[in-house]
Design a protein that fits this description.
By secondary structure, this protein is mainly alpha-helical. Helix content is 61%, strand content 4%.
Length: 349
């Protein structure tokens, strides 16, 4: 855990916090560089003295001052002091030579007696392996004993051996997979807990807000505006803005309309057929061809509400909504409930 030297917050990682810390005043300096300098007490003069002047490596500075390697490298790169590869290799070779001279009295690790003896032993092993390969070639014409036909047949036809090997492989894979999954899950939970105080990233307040339906709708709207499929409020007429408000209130009350619904059309009092039922009784046909599917209708039509000055909230409110069939909804069109009921009565009469 890190504690911000400016606002005092405790964080799992602090690099991404510096640019957004409201209590930091870094001036013209990169906020990450300024934050690291204040957190660890190192600055440009420190690197000029230790890294450039004394020619110390970053790993040496890690041991001496306890600053993480990634932080030191980031600061050195930010200051433009990072050595090129050639200089780094030359400096490291010189330090290696000094170390081996002081510890073993030689300049090269391959001159150490124990290392020389180990290499000789390895060469002896390699000679023994080469001799074994020559023997296998002379006797069986192969380089590896598992390439001998008799050995291969025995391994492939031994059911007990195959079953045992398969069980072992499955168990090992299951243990490794479950262990890796548990470790990753626990690490993820702990990271989220340290950084945000929650177990799941979808519980982070800003993620919840970002996934909110209104924001998602706003993002879709901006995209449609950009490609010319959506008009901005300034480009819309008064009626278009009124329709948009009515739709917004209608969506809010949509689910409430179906609470306690008796399954009948509000106007004709006939049973409606859901798309699921229509697909079962009409296999192969699209639900769009279902004229009796339930739809939401405005008893006082939207155009009538606009012309008579009724608020969009009332037109899209629960009291002005009902459920009717798609066919009736299309027939009703711009009419009010009373007008349409008179039409139905005239037709039925």
């Amino acid at each position: 855990m890190f504690e911000c030297p400016f606002c005092g917050r405790r964080l799992g990682t602090i690099k991404n916090h510096f640019p957004v810390c409201k209590k930091m005043d870094s001036g013209d300096v990169d906020p990450v560089v300024f934050g690291y300098e204040c957190l660890y007490g190192v600055d440009f003069e420190f690197f000029q003295r230790e890294y450039v002047g004394a020619q110390k490596g970053l790993k040496t500075l890690v041991r001496e001052c306890g600053v993480p390697y990634k932080v030191l490298r980031f600061l050195v790169e930010s200051y433009g002091l990072l050595r090129d590869v050639g200089d780094a290799v030359r400096l490291q070779n010189e330090k290696n030579k000094e170390y081996f001279l002081s510890e073993y009295g030689v300049e090269n690790p391959f001159q150490i007696p124990e290392v020389v003896s180990r290499i000789r032993d390895k060469r002896d092993v390699q000679r023994a392996q080469e001799e074994a390969r020559r023997t296998l070639q002379l006797r069986y014409g192969v380089d590896n004993p598992f390439q001998i036909p008799e050995v291969k047949d025995r391994i492939q036809n031994d059911e007990q051996l195959k079953s045992k090997r398969a069980r072992g492989q499955r168990r090992a894979f299951a243990r490794k997979t479950q262990k890796d999954w548990d470790e990753r899950s626990e690490k993820t939970r702990q990271t989220n807990k340290d950084r945000y105080g929650v177990d799941n990233p979808f519980q982070i307040p800003r993620v919840v807000e970002k996934n909110h339906a209104d924001e998602a709708m706003g993002k879709r709207r901006k995209t449609m505006e950009r490609i010319g499929l959506w008009k901005s409020d300034e480009e819309r007429s008064d009626y278009e803005r009124y329709v948009s408000e009515v739709r917004k209130h209608t969506r809010k009350n949509r689910k409430r309309v179906f609470v306690g619904w008796d399954g009948l059309c509000f106007y004709e009092r006939c049973t409606l057929v859901t798309n699921e039922e229509f697909v079962k009784t009409h296999p192969g046909e699209s639900p769009a061809r279902n004229p009796m599917r339930p739809t939401i209708d405005h008893k006082v039509s939207v155009i009538r509400g606009f012309k008579t000055g009724i608020s969009a909230e009332r037109i899209g409110g629960i009291g002005n909504l009902c459920v009717c069939s798609q066919r009736v909804n299309s027939q009703k069109n711009y009419r009010n409930m009373v007008e349409f009921m008179e039409v139905i009565g005239h037709v039925e009469g």
